[in-house]
Amino acid sequence: MHGLQVSIDQDKCCGSGHCVQLAPEVFDQDPMSGTVILLQSAPTFASHEAVREAGAVCPASAINVMEPALSRGHRGIPSIAATISVGEGPAAVAFSPDGREAYVANYGRWATGAPGRTVSVINTDTRAVIATIEVGVGPSVLTVAPNGATVYVGNYGSAKAPGNTVSVIDTANHKVTPPITVGNAPDGVAVSPDGHRLFVSELGSETRLGTSMSVIDTATNCVIGTLEVGEGPGAVAITPDGTRGYVVNYGTPTDPAGTVSVFDVERNAVIATIAVGKSPGAVAVTPDGKRVYVANHGPFDAPGNTISVIDTTTNTVVATVGVGSGPGGVAIAKNGSRVYVVNMGGNDAPGSTMSVIDTQDNTVIATVDVGRTPAAIALSPDGRWAYVTNYGTNTVAVLDLNN
Fold it and tell me: In whole angstroms, what is the distance from residue 208 CA to residue 380 CA?
């Protein structure tokens, strides 16, 4: 099989017509019975995402979508193994340390000003949502404690009414415990490797851009310090040895020249500021702690297309890698050999791809179709699977990284 293949189970079809609305070039309806008519069993690449969505939302599960098998010449290129429907506007995803569950923050819709307030819990064995947890308004980021007992969810709120809480989920029973109050619009969360500290960046509001990050004692869930960073702080990452942290700063709407603030975890102090690309939106540290990869998304009306690579010894940018439009989430392979970047796109042209970077020479070795407006990515603890949140289709794409 060299391309996406589609088949229909006519006995299951209930005639809902969702597939025709999503991909009219591939599906049609019988005017008498209302059942689906397959126009293309091997749709073109341009229709792949719409076909995947049709298969995911079909209420009768009558559409069978078969992903292409990779040839021996394409070993190592990820491919979609499944698509999971979640809440509206999935914006972030993280795995439990044992890999049995994945947690998805469903932000809702930014454009309509209708933020959501749920987290979907996925059983990774069955690839099914097993719980939906109500959290604060506009959950946009989340992270899991190293011991797996707690999930921390940053409730961004909306542009007009920024949130100021972090929801705390007990993973044993999927219940929410009392939230933590922080600054306006929490937009980045990270836990120290020892699990003792939680770092929460605060983007601010439309009228006053934030410049701070709260430091929380996870034993008491109390804020024990505040760190001044750059303007519009977002994603946060901590080095594996727990000594340093990196937080991206979007910059201002009129001056989106981005920076990364480097802070000493023990001293709770900024020790360096690094210039990167415009409006950086994501950051990740390699397993050996030697490199940091920053996704320079750029403004949504003029998205960027680069990744800045930082040497953690000198805290300088040592490489810039060209990727797709509007790079969003970043994840790094367990052995440090690959970096996976989802390309979200911008207002006029939503993205649909993931760039794969070889860390040996910082070159893109593959570009993979993952779904409409991919916002975030997380890798399973065993390194086998990547979960990508597709903001545009309310789905999570499950990618096999071991082809």
Answer: 37
Assign a CATH topology to domain 5-66. Alpha-Beta Plaits (3.30.70)
Q: Has residue 72 got a pLDDT over 90? A: no
Answer whether 375's CB lies under 8 Å from 108's CB: no
Structural contact between residues 89 and 96, judged by C-beta atoms closer than 8 angstroms: no
Going through 20-161 in order, the beta strands assigned E by DSSP cover 27-29, 36-38, 63-66, 79-85, 90-95, 101-109, 114-123, 128-134, 139-144, 150-157
Per-domain boundaries in the chain: 5-66, 72-400
Other C-beta atoms within 10 Å of 291: how many? 21
- With H, G, I as helix, E, B as strand and everything else as coil, classify residue 375: strand
H or E stretch at 18: helix 18-22
Q: Which residues pair with 115 in a beta bridge?
A: 108
Give pTM, 2 decimals: 0.82
Average pLDDT over residues 371-380: 96
Of the pLDDT bands very low, low, confident and very high (cuts 50, 70, 90), residue 76 is low
Nearest Cα to 319, choosing from 289, 280, 285, 361?
A: 361
In the DSSP assignment, the letter for residue 42 is S
CATH number of 72-400: 2.130.10.10
Those residues whose C-beta lies under 8 Å from the C-beta of residue 166, and which sit 6 or more positions away, are 136, 152, 153, 154, 155, 179, 180, 182, 186, 189, 198, 200, 216
pLDDT at 69: 44
- Average pLDDT of the residues of the chain: 92
Residue 157: its pLDDT value, please? 94
Return the percentage of the chain with pLDDT > 70, whole number: 95
Q: Are 210 and 246 in contact (CB under 8 A)?
A: no
How many angstroms from the chain centroid is the CA of residue 217? 26
